[in-house]
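Students often ask what a holo structure prediction actually looks like on paper. The answer is less mysterious than it sounds. You provide the chain, you provide the ligand, and the output is a string of C-alpha cells encoding the 3D arrangement of the protein together with KG4.
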Amino acid sequence: MGCFFTLGIETSCDDTGVAVLRNEREVVSELLSSQIKDHAPFGGVVPEFAARKHLENILPLIDAALRQAKITGRRLGLIAVTRGPGLMGSLLAGTETAFALAQAWNVPVIGVNHLEGHLFAPLLESDLEPPFLSLIVSGGHTEIIKAEKFGRYTILGTTRDDAAGEAYDKAARMMGLPYPGGPEIDRLAQSGDPKAFDFPTPLKNTDKIEFSFSGLKTALLWQINKLKNNSKSLPLADLSASFQRAVTEALIAKVALAVRQTGIKDVSVSGGVAANSALRSHLADKSGGRWKAYLPRASRCTDNAAMIAMAGHNAFTRGTENAEEFAYFAPDPSLALAKRGGVASFMVI
Ligand code: KG4
Ligand code: ZN
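The corresponding C-alpha cells follow.
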C-alpha cells in the first residue's frame, strides 16, 4: 500500500504542535513547543503573546517535523489544521501558515474542530470504533459526547460554569500554586489524604449529564480562609487530594450515568485533565465492568497535533466527494462540534 502523509498543525491555545502522520494513525514525527513558562508569570494564557509565540515557533517546528519524517512538503497528501474553538490570534497563526504552505506545496488543507481532535486522541493508540462515548476534560471544555459514527456527534452534557481544568487551575491559584494548576495539584495529591476535607461532589446524584465546579471552588476557598484565620500553614497535599477526589468523583458519576442512559460501554477520555492520575486510576477501578475507558498517553491528553492530523485524515477520507467543502475557511473561535471544517479550494485531486 502507498503511503499517505498528513501534516497536523495545532495552535488553538498556548501550545504549538506539529505532527506527521502516515496513513490512518501511524505517528512518524511529533513536536510540541509549550509556552507554559512564558505565560506562568501572568497566571494564565495572554492571548496576544500566545499568537506571537506561535508565529515564532511554527515554521521551524514544521521544518523539523518533516525532516524527522524524512519527507518534503510536496510529498504530503494533506494538511490538517485546527480551525476552532480557541483563541482567535492563535488559531490564525495556524490556519494562515497552513494555507500559505498548502499553496506553495500544492496540498489540500482541512480544518479540524479542536474537540474532534481530542476525541480522536485515544484512537491513535487503539482501534476503537463508533459508537462510543467521549469524555473531554480540558482547560476550556468539560463535555460528554456521543460519537454515533465518525463525523456525527451529539453533546450529551456539559458544564454549567467552569471547565474541569479551569477549576483545577483556579483551585491551584487559591492555594498559591503555580500555573497551570492541574499537574501541581495532581503531584501534591499523591502524598495527601483524599478524605481529609469533606468537599462536596458536585451534582453527583442528579440524573442529568451536567457538571458544575463553582460550588466546589467556594467550598475550597472557605476552607482555605478558615485555615488561614487560624494562622495555620496550608496542608497543601490534603487540600489537593480532597479537591481532586471531589472533581474525579463528579466526572466518574456522569460517565456512569451516560453509559447507563445510552447503553454504550466504550468511553474515550481525553483533554488535559485526562492526564490526571486519580481520574485515570478511578476510570479503571470504579468501572466494575460497566464501561471500558480508552485513554491516550499523558502527552497526548493535552493539546497536540497528532490528534488533529488523525481527525483531519479521517474526515478527509470520509468527505472528499463533497465539493461544497472545498473552500477557504476562516478560523472560528467558537466553532461548534457539529459544524465541519473545510478543504481549501486549491485542492488537486
Ligand atoms: O487540553 P489542554 O492542554 O488545553 C485545553 O484545550 O484547554 O488542557 C489543559 C488543562 C489545564 O487546565 C491543566 O491544568 C489541566 O489541563 N491538566 C491537568 C493535568 N494536566 C493538565 N489537570 C489535572 N491533572 C493533571 N495531571
Ligand atoms: Zn485542548
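The longest helix spans residues 236-262.
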